[in-house]
Structure formats: structure tokens, C-alpha cells
UniProtKB/TrEMBL annotation:
Pfam families: CBM53. One of its GO terms (molecular function) is starch binding. Gene3D superfamilies: Immunoglobulins. Residues 27-107 form the Carbohydrate binding module family domain. This is Carbohydrate binding domain (Family 25). Signal peptide: none annotated.
Length: 108
């Protein structure tokens, strides 16, 4: 029986958050693309906070690279559990999807 995904790219695209590939797989790398609230507000630096599962295991902040279309970073997918994302700028402003974070199921 297939698992119902927490979310996919189309759910967050209006917030400026996408991942590639759209379904992350444990052991592989994904690219996070961000053109959300912080980018649109003129942030010069954005960090992606990443964690896995309900306890945000392996929680790490990744500095994102500014591009012509926003910010991006490539990260390893460390666990076969929910991938959680939120974003902050260097002034400690947050984009956490109104407290819901950005969550994606990870394939084994």
C-alpha cells in the first residue's frame, strides 16, 4: 500500500519552495530552490534549516547560494523519514510556512 505523501512540490510552489528531484530518496542529494518571502523581501543571505522526522533529527543549517531566481543549495538526504525545511535570513527572520514548515516524504 503506497504511503500518502506529506506534500509535494506543487503544494509549496506558491510559497517559492521546490526541491529537485520532487521525491527525495535516502542516500541521494537533492537541490532545494527558494524564492519565497525572505528572497522577495531582499535578503542577501538565506539559510535552509533541514531536519528529518518529527524530532528534526540531524538538524543542520545550510547556507544557500544566491542565484538569478532566488537561492539554492544541494544537500544529502540522510534518513528515510520526513524531510523538514524552513528558512532564515541573516537578520533572523524566518519563513516556516506559517509555523507548519515545509515537509516532504522521503523514499527508501
Amino acid at each position: 500500500m503506497p504511503r500518502k505523501c506529506k506534500s509535494n512540490n506543487k503544494d509549496y510552489i506558491s510559497n517559492g519552495v521546490t526541491i529537485q528531484p520532487a521525491v527525495p530518496t535516502v542516500g541521494e542529494n537533492i537541490t532545494i530552490l527558494y524564492d519565497g518571502l525572505l528572497a522577495k523581501s531582499g535578503a542577501s543571505h538565506v539559510y535552509a534549516r533541514v531536519g528529518f522526522g518529527t524530532n528534526w533529527d540531524n538538524e543542520t543549517d545550510y547556507a544557500m547560494t544566491k542565484t538569478d531566481t532566488g537561492f539554492e543549495v544541494t544537500i544529502p538526504v540522510l534518513k528515510a523519514d520526513t524531510l523538514n525545511l524552513c528558512f532564515k535570513d541573516c537578520a533572523n527572520n524566518w519563513d516556516n510556512n506559517s509555523g507548519m514548515n515545509y515537509s516532504f516524504d522521503v523514499a527508501n
